[in-house]
Write a structure and sequence with these properties.
Keywords: Coiled coil. This protein is mainly α. The chain is about 100% helix and about 0% strand. It is built from one helix and no strands. The chain is rod-shaped. The relative contact order is 0.03.
């Protein structure tokens, strides 16, 4: 009976030791869970900060896009004005050519008039000489 009692005591002691180990292990698990929860909380806070920064970046991107759109519109207007100016410049050049041609014609006509006047003067002189 003593052997059974000793064996039972030893088994009871083993069970108590196992329970103690299980409790310690459970404590470690609980500590790990607590650490994991704290780390998850920090990660969540970081995620929140990242989200806020991303939102600010998105807002800045939107502003940049709006400014780029305005710049594009201004460039388009500038290109249109540039084309208008080039067309007007061509018209001015064509008009200047016409003015130059007209001036050349006027010069030719004046030359002819002078020549005719010279001829008339010569004829007058000749007539006057003949009269004398």
């Amino acid at each position: 009976m003593h052997i059974i009692y000793t064996h039972l005591l030893k088994s009871l002691k083993d069970i108590e030791d196992k329970e103690k180990q299980i409790e310690e292990h459970q404590k470690k698990i609980d500590e790990q869970k607590k650490l994991i929860n704290e780390k998850q909380q920090k990660i969540d806070e970081q995620d929140k900060i990242i989200d806020e920064k991303q939102q600010k970046l998105d807002e800045k991107d939107k502003i940049i896009d709006e400014k780029q759109q305005k710049i594009d519109e201004q460039e388009k207007q500038f290109d249109h004005k540039k084309i208008e100016v080039e067309e007007k410049q061509k018209l001015v050049e064509e008009k200047q050519k016409l003015v130059d041609e007209k001036q050349n014609l006027i010069d030719e006509i004046q030359k002819e008039i002078k020549n005719k006047q010279d001829e008339i003067d010569d004829k007058k002189k000749t007539i006057e000489k003949k009269k004398k």
